[in-house]
TrEMBL record:
Keywords assigned by UniProt, alphabetized: Signal
Alphabetical list of InterPro entries matching this protein: Metal_Hydrolase (IPR032466), Pept_M19 (IPR008257)
Protein's name according to its UniProt entry: Membrane dipeptidase
Organism: Pseudoxanthomonas composti
Signal peptide positions on this chain: 1-23
Top-level taxon: Bacteria
Any Pfam family matching the protein: Peptidase_M19
Gene Ontology terms for molecular function: metallodipeptidase activity
A GO BP entry: proteolysis
Positions of transmembrane segments: none
PROSITE patterns to which the protein is assigned, alphabetical: RENAL_DIPEPTIDASE_2
């Protein structure tokens, strides 16, 4: 199983260490701050639930990016102006045998419970969101919205009918696959030149798309192969999302979407949320040898569960030394904006949003955690975008997509799932 949080935390903690190509300082104007305050600010891929089980880590405490690698907590959401978003039930891809699928089932349900428990424990600060209108209402009440998404349908492999249970518990977005092929779909892989195994969707994956459409669950293409994109667009009766992806024509990483498909996405009413994971934005110079040594460091700390603050600091120091040894390049805020502005130009501002992959590997020099979100607002204004367009990118497009997907759901299927 992929040790996503450990990898994310360590990668995030060293994004600004080298000083290579740091972005110029962005001075956030009062106009930008007022505009952001008037908007609904949603990020569609928050991996922060991976932290909920960490010893001594609380969402209500203000943590430090430099101290523990985390990028989202309630105080920093307030400071950065983030109103909420989609909080992720992530399960790393493991064996596709019976035992692997049962373990994934149990892990997914546990993570789902942890998200709901966080909300229940902090009713004055967070509220579960399930429909488009919840985002504005919860913001007006001075709280943060918690929509729930699933990254990788692996927890549904053993029993796909569990999708109805997840829906009743609040799930409103679903991606079929992560970094490896599974029995729903092919992955984009994790390295340039990665190839698919079965030419896209399996029959099990096609049936999952049909069921998600019936329930009004947004389908997320991020991490899936280009063939899956083409098939998902053709099969889905509702627009789809890419919850955290970038532009292939800016940097040809398999996780990114090419201009031709960006235009297809827009033509079908979909939205792409721009990712800030440095390795998807630029060529960092990571070699197979580097990745092998990095993997050994991850393994030495035993994964994300039970990793305390001291262990994270030790791991961060080892990663920083490894990056220096291999002269790994660090992406910066300008690299992030290059992807965002390109995608807006190609897909149109009505089809773009933000999905930085906070606490899941995202973050670049100059944009290390959610407190830097106002810089994006200023950069969009500096690029000439109007207030209405910036509000749409910050969250309006996401709200519209939620509403549109749910309007196309099957009322009978929704009623049955909620009973």
């Amino acid at each position: 199983m992929k040790r996503k949080f450990l990898a994310a935390a360590l990668a995030a903690c060293v994004v600004g260490v080298s000083g290579q190509g740091l972005a110029k300082d962005v001075v956030v104007s009062e106009k930008a701050r007022a505009l952001q305050a008037s908007a609904i600010n949603l990020d569609t891929h928050l991996d922060t639930p991976a932290l909920f089980g960490q010893p001594g880590w609380k969402i209500t405490d203000r943590h430090s990016f430099q101290g523990d690698g985390s990028q989202i907590d309630y105080p920093r959401m307030v400071e950065g102006g983030l109103d909420g978003g989609f909080w992720v039930v992530y399960t790393g891809q493991g064996p596709l045998d019976q035992m692997g699928k049962l373990k994934a089932r149990d892990f997914g349900l546990k993570r789902l419970g942890e998200i709901r428990e966080m909300v229940a424990a902090n009713p004055d600060k967070f509220e579960l969101a399930t429909v488009a209108g919840d985002a504005a209402r919860i913001k007006a009440e001075g709280k943060k919205s918690v929509y729930i998404s699933m990254e990788n349908a692996y927890p549904l492999s053993h029993d796909p009918t569990l999708l109805s249970y997840y829906y009743k518990a609040g799930l409103r977005m679903l991606s079929l696959v992560h970094g490896s092929h599974n029995d729903f779909a092919d992955s984009a892989g994790t390295a340039p030149g990665a190839v698919t195994a079965r030419e896209g969707l399996t029959e099990k994956g096609r049936q999952m798309i049909i069921e998600a459409n019936k329930l009004g669950i947004i389908l997320d293409h991020s991490h899936a192969s280009p063939a899956v994109f083409d098939q998902m667009i053709a099969l889905s009766k509702a627009p789809i999302i890419l919850s955290h992806s970038g532009a292939w024509d800016v940097y040809p990483h398999p996780r990114n979407l090419d201009d031709k498909r960006l235009k297809v996405l827009a033509a079908h009413g979909g939205v792409i949320q721009v990712n800030s994971l440095g390795g998807y934005l630029i060529d960092t110079g990571a070699t197979p040898e580097y990745r092998a040594e990095l993997g050994k460091i991850y393994q030495s700390f035993g994964g994300r569960r039970g990793l305390d603050a001291d262990a994270r600091k030790q791991a961060m120091a080892q990663i920083a030394a490894l990056d220096a040894k291999y002269k790994i390049k660090k992406a910066n805020f300008d690299d992030y904006m290059r992807h965002l502005l390109h995608i807006i130009k190609v897909a149109g501002w009505e089809h773009v949003g933000l999905g930085a992959d906070w606490d899941g590997g995202g973050g670049v020099a100059g944009y290390e955690d959610i407190t830097a979100l106002p810089k994006v607002v200023q950069a969009l204004l500096d690029a000439g975008y109007k207030d209405e367009q910036v509000r749409a990118i910050l969250g309006g497009n996401t709200v519209r997509l939620i509403e549109q997907v749910q309007s196309l759901a099957d009322p009978a299927a929704v009623k049955a799932a909620l009973e």
